[in-house]
Amino acid sequence: MNAKTIIPNGFSIRRIQLSDFEDVKIVLAGLTAVGPITLSTYENILNYWDSLKLMTIPGEYVYNTYVVIDKNTNSVAAIGTIFVEQKIIHDGGLVGHIEDIAVNSDYRGQKLGKLIIDYLSEQGEKLGCYKVILDCDVKNVGFYEKCNYNQAGIEMQTRFN
Ligand code: COA
Question: For the whole prediction, is pTM greater than 0.90?
Answer without folding.
Answer: yes
